[in-house]
Amino acid sequence: MSEASIPHLGSLPSRLTRLYGGLALYGLGIGLQVRSGLGNGPWDTFHQGVAGHLGLSIGTVIIGVGALVMLLWIPMRQRPGLGTISNVICVGLFADAALFLLPVPGHWALSWLYLALALVSIAMATVLYIGAGMGPGPRDGLMTGLVRLGLSLRLGRFLIEVTVLAAGWLLGGTVGVGTLVFALAIGPLTQLFARRFPLT
């Protein structure tokens, strides 16, 4: 999903609403998927693994990793925007809030409902915050930075996500059927929302 494929809102208040609404929804999606227990996306497997070893909340690790990833932007000559800084701070805060508020599912059907809602939330959130046009998230910027260095978009994303998934799994992050469902479904779902709900 590229920024060019998602329509942007024009006015500043609308763009800010779209940005922060998207980041809140993204944090909710992370909370739902982690709480489902069925398996996380690659980055959140890593965040969860690091959090378990350091005794920190997942949201705190999301913020810390986001800040560290932004340091990698420097040699790639990537420039952050308001959306980048907001992504670093807000997604982790909203993820922790969601994990605090969401009950642990007591039945497999509820776990799958959490996973389905997580996918919808993250896909819609991507359309919202990228469409605000205020800068990519730190992890997205890392991917586009590798593209600028000569890697294809697909290869850059594959290398990053396989690396963080493997590291997260080794650290004890949850990998399962939800991880596979996330990998297969998040791209098509995001594209679907971009086409059906341009929000212009």
TrEMBL record:
* TM region(s), chain numbering: 20-38, 50-74, 81-102, 108-130, 166-186
Q: What single Pfam family name could you report for this chain, choosing any that match?
A: DUF6198
* Top-level taxonomic group: Bacteria
Keywords associated with the record: Membrane, Transmembrane, Transmembrane helix
Q: Which PANTHER family match?
A: INTEGRAL MEMBRANE PROTEIN, INTEGRAL MEMBRANE PROTEIN-RELATED
Question: Could you tell me what this protein is called?
Answer: YitT family protein
Record the organism: Nonomuraea montanisoli
